[in-house]
């Protein structure tokens, strides 16, 4: 009980000093809890949506390959089934009703100003017919349902976002052509719509305009009669449809109960949510790791400042175990307070993330906010365990102080032997990490080298943390010679203070080092990716222009025709992806995608060949393969491969060329001509273009660029880019990804800054008497504050120098490994590295503001009298 009282007294006596450590715990736990609440809320939102929209039993077509639903195929038209099946399904025992549904996501909807009504968050644009089943999830809140070809109904979220009202005209772009309709009604979701744009037409219009003709549906929604289970109804429908081609695995149609359909949709979304969840938890883990350094430093300094108190406790009978337990109980209190506040802050963070996603187009309602029981439990356990573990070493060190040494105020024992052992272990780990990184750069396969890269990163990071005190003595002196000496005696005092306790300086710098090492590593990798891609584009791409969809949709025929009619164009190349099954001469069959292109593609992309001529691959019944495939199957030019085209026939194609896979553009691609593919794939099953390429007439690049843009100005979903545009887009995409990562790493850097603040604040308290004496012999307040700021700056620069150096080493090793995948150019982003290093000095200045201010306000006499 006495130990508990002592711990409580010490905790509240130093509550100001504990506050920053508590904030570090709070931030880390908040990020973990917020991530869990946010992803759980997204799961709840989608679960409600899928449950609301799924009918009791759904009948849908299977793709010809039997791989499952083909909801958004390469043809731009959904798979369909005959409308006559609706009547048959309605007669199945236990079926109350059945109705046909038309759904397509291969559409773009634009308003009268030619602005795309689709979501900017990546959610699809869904067009279909209005059915009774839709009333389960939606209700008409304005106007009326579509009644004819000139009517369209939109969802309320889209109408609000784009200021649509009854009577506004919308144009829908599909592979079957463009058609216009006026808004006749607005329907609101009864559950949260995560951001999809939804438009409804009458059934005949939806069939004709989205599927190409009437008499087809993409699915059938079946409602069960009272007392009939979904599973029983599914079996009855399967039996009824057996005369129409069979159902079940391998059959013509796919049947799903409401639960199966919801589970299938949830699985598709779940993979994306899992990636987001674990990525965010990873950054939260980095922040927790940084927080450990802060807590270790805090308790180490508090123990040092209470040396005499601990000696008195030992002298009156407290055992080592009790002193140890006293410190750990303080850590437990800190963990509890910080974790509880962190869990609460995590809920607020989740709400903030939901608002942020809303501004980006993904709507999430706070009414769906989901806080599972496990979330606060995970947050509390994580925060408390991390805090107690971090405080263990300082607590153990406190227990080792002998009563006599403590009463003499000798401080914590300085074990030279332990320091030498620590340095030896640190050097060993750092050397092992460097060796692993070197092995990674020499690997022949990326998969093999990645294991050594990961090992090298972990070992070198731990090594730098362990060896930090040794490095502090060397690096701080070097930095001081450049940064501090110009400030005269004050600068030398700041240097001495930073070197006074190398272990403390090393731990404080290591906290900042971790975040900046990751920043530097990712900057090197990102810059190298851009430089490598730019270099390869310059070498490989012969086309002047690349045309593609911003949302990955296939090209509609009207755009293809418009591009080919543009003036000042030498040629336009079609580029299609054809799904096939390839059977090589060794008898092995693999699923592969062939690139079916015009012969001019050989000019648009200069692929190096190791055998044969690429132009020959565009001849009749010919193809090319990559050298990786050729080696794997032992094929050579002149051999024949059996090609089974999806939705088509089977061909025997001769290998006319083997291309080098030593590059990143179209790596591993196999080519054939569109003419060859058209011999075996029916015209209505031929995939639409994935991309298109164009070459300008000599000296007409500027005119051709303008002409291509003008030709498809009515189709905002497609973008014409010259090589400069394409390179800039690539740079912007990688830059946006890195900015997101930097934003997440900012949490770790904030925690590291708190560590610097805490170290300085406690250091000022520790040196109270010394500060009083310096003031008494003539040091001004201004000089005192400058001394503390300079000490903070040099500690921050120490951490930055270690982090940036370590990160550049990681990034260089990673690039050498990625060179095996075609990213051959190493580029160090010196501007970013230098900016981060300089910014670290300002971080140090900022961290010193409060400690320096408090030091300057000390009363000289009281400070001298402090024991």
UniProtKB/TrEMBL annotation:
<feature type="transmembrane region" description="Helical">
    <location>
        <begin position="830"/>
        <end position="853"/>
    </location>
</feature>
<protein>
    <recommendedName>
        <fullName>ABC transporter permease</fullName>
    </recommendedName>
</protein>
<feature type="transmembrane region" description="Helical">
    <location>
        <begin position="452"/>
        <end position="484"/>
    </location>
</feature>
<feature type="domain" description="ABC3 transporter permease C-terminal">
    <location>
        <begin position="744"/>
        <end position="859"/>
    </location>
</feature>
<feature type="transmembrane region" description="Helical">
    <location>
        <begin position="421"/>
        <end position="440"/>
    </location>
</feature>
<keyword id="KW-1133">Transmembrane helix</keyword>
<feature type="transmembrane region" description="Helical">
    <location>
        <begin position="790"/>
        <end position="810"/>
    </location>
</feature>
<feature type="transmembrane region" description="Helical">
    <location>
        <begin position="740"/>
        <end position="765"/>
    </location>
</feature>
<feature type="domain" description="ABC3 transporter permease C-terminal">
    <location>
        <begin position="283"/>
        <end position="403"/>
    </location>
</feature>
<dbReference type="InterPro" id="IPR003838">
    <property type="entry name" value="ABC3_permease_C"/>
</dbReference>
<feature type="transmembrane region" description="Helical">
    <location>
        <begin position="505"/>
        <end position="525"/>
    </location>
</feature>
<feature type="transmembrane region" description="Helical">
    <location>
        <begin position="278"/>
        <end position="304"/>
    </location>
</feature>
<dbReference type="Pfam" id="PF02687">
    <property type="entry name" value="FtsX"/>
</dbReference>
<dbReference type="InterPro" id="IPR025857">
    <property type="entry name" value="MacB_PCD"/>
</dbReference>
<feature type="transmembrane region" description="Helical">
    <location>
        <begin position="327"/>
        <end position="353"/>
    </location>
</feature>
<feature type="transmembrane region" description="Helical">
    <location>
        <begin position="373"/>
        <end position="395"/>
    </location>
</feature>
<keyword id="KW-1003">Cell membrane</keyword>
<feature type="region of interest" description="Disordered">
    <location>
        <begin position="59"/>
        <end position="84"/>
    </location>
</feature>
<keyword id="KW-0472">Membrane</keyword>
<feature type="domain" description="MacB-like periplasmic core">
    <location>
        <begin position="508"/>
        <end position="706"/>
    </location>
</feature>
<comment type="similarity">
    <text>Belongs to the ABC-4 integral membrane protein family.</text>
</comment>
<dbReference type="InterPro" id="IPR050250">
    <property type="entry name" value="Macrolide_Exporter_MacB"/>
</dbReference>
<keyword id="KW-0812">Transmembrane</keyword>
<dbReference type="GO" id="GO:0022857">
    <property type="term" value="F:transmembrane transporter activity"/>
</dbReference>
<feature type="domain" description="MacB-like periplasmic core">
    <location>
        <begin position="19"/>
        <end position="238"/>
    </location>
</feature>
<dbReference type="GO" id="GO:0005886">
    <property type="term" value="C:plasma membrane"/>
</dbReference>
<dbReference type="Pfam" id="PF12704">
    <property type="entry name" value="MacB_PCD"/>
</dbReference>
């Amino acid at each position: 009980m006495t130990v508990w009282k002592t711990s409580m007294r010490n905790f509240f006596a130093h509550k100001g000093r504990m506050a920053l450590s508590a904030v570090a715990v709070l931030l880390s736990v908040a990020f973990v809890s917020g991530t869990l609440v946010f992803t759980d809320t997204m799961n709840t939102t989608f679960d409600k949506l899928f449950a609301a929209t799924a009918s009791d039993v759904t009948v849908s077509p299977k793709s010809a390959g039997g791989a499952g639903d083909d909801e958004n195929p390469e043809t731009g038209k959904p798979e369909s089934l005959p409308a006559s099946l609706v009547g048959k399904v309605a007669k199945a025992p236990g079926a109350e009703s059945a109705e046909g549904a038309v759904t397509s996501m291969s559409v773009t909807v634009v308003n009268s100003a030619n602005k795309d009504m689709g979501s900017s968050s990546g959610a699809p644009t869904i067009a279909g017919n209005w059915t009774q089943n839709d009333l389960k999830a939606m209700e008409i809140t304005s106007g009326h349902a579509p009644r004819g070809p000139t009517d369209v109904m939109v969802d309320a979220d889209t109408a609000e976002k784009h200021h649509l009202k009854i009577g506004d005209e919308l144009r829908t772009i599909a592979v079957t052509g463009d058609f216009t309709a006026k808004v006749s009604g607005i329907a609101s979701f009864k559950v949260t719509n995560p951001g999809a744009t939804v438009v409804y037409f009458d059934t005949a219009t939806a069939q004709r305009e989205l599927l190409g003709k009437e008499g087809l549906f993409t699915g059938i929604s079946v409602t069960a009669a009272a007392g009939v289970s979904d599973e029983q109804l599914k079996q009855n429908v399967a039996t009824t449809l057996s005369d129409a081609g069979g159902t079940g695995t391998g059959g013509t149609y796919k049947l799903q109960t409401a639960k199966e359909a919801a589970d299938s949709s949830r699985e598709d979304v779940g993979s994306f949510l899992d990636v987001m969840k674990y990525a965010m938890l990873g950054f939260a883990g980095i922040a927790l790791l940084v927080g450990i350094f802060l807590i270790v430093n805090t308790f180490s300094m508090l123990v040092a400042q209470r040396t005499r108190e601990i000696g008195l406790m030992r002298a009156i009978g407290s055992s080592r175990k009790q002193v140890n337990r006293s410190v750990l109980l303080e850590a437990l209190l800190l963990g509890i307070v910080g974790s509880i506040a962190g869990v609460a802050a995590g809920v607020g963070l989740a709400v903030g993330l939901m608002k942020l996603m809303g501004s980006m187009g993904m709507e999430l309602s706070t009414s769906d906010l989901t806080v599972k029981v496990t979330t606060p439990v995970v947050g509390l356990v994580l925060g408390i365990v991390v805090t107690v573990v971090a405080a263990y070493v300082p607590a153990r060190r406190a227990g080792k102080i002998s009563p006599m040494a403590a009463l003499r105020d000798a401080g914590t024992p300085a074990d030279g032997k332990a320091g030498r052992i620590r340095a030896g272990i640190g050097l060993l780990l750092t050397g092992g990490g460097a060796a692993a990184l070197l092995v990674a750069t020499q690997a022949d396969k990326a998969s093999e080298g990645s294991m050594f890269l990961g090992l090298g990163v972990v070992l070198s990071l731990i090594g730098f943390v362990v060896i930090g005190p040794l490095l502090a003595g060397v690096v701080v002196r070097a930095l001081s010679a450049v940064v501090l000496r110009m400030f005269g005696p004050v600068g030398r005092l700041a240097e001495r203070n930073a070197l006074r306790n190398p272990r403390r300086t090393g731990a404080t710098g290591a906290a900042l080092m971790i975040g900046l090492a990751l920043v530097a590593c990712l900057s090197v990798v990102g810059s190298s990716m851009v430089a490598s891609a730019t270099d390869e584009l310059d070498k490989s791409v012969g086309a002047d222009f690349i045309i593609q969809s911003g949302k990955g949709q296939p090209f509609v025929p009207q755009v293809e025709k418009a591009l080919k009619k543009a003036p000042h164009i030498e040629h336009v190349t079609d580029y299609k992806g054809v799904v096939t099954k390839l059977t090589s001469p060794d008898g092995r069959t693999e699923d592969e995608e062939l690139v079916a292109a015009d012969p001019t593609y050989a000019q648009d992309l200069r692929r190096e060949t190791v055998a044969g001529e690429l132009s020959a691959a565009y001849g009749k019944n010919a193809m090319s393969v990559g050298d990786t495939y050729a080696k794997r199957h032992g094929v050579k030019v002149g051999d024949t491969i059996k090609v089974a085209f999806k939705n088509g026939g089977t061909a025997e194609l001769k290998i006319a060329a083997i291309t080098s896979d030593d590059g990143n553009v179209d790596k591993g691609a196999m080519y054939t001509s569109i003419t060859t593919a058209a011999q075996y794939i029916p015209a209505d099953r031929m995939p639409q273009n994935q991309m298109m390429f164009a070459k300008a007439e000599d000296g007409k690049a500027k005119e051709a660029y303008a002409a291509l843009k003008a030709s498809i100005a009515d189709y905002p979903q497609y973008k014409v880019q010259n090589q400069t545009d394409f390179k800039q887009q690539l740079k912007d995409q990688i830059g946006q990804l890195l900015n997101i990562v930097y934003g997440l790493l900012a949490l770790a850097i904030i925690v590291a800054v708190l560590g610097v603040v805490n170290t300085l604040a406690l250091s000022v308290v520790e040196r109270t008497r010394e500060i009083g004496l310096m003031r008494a012999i003539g040091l001004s307040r201004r000089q005192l504050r400058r001394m503390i700021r300079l000490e903070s700056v040099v500690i921050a620069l120490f951490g930055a120098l270690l982090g940036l150096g370590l990160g550049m080493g990681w990034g260089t090793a990673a690039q050498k490994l990625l060179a095996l995948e075609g990213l051959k150019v190493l580029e160090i982003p010196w501007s970013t590295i230098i900016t981060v290093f300089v910014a670290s000095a300002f971080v140090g200045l900022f961290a010193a503001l409060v400690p320096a201010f408090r030091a300057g306000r000390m009363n000289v006499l009281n400070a001298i009298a402090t024991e």
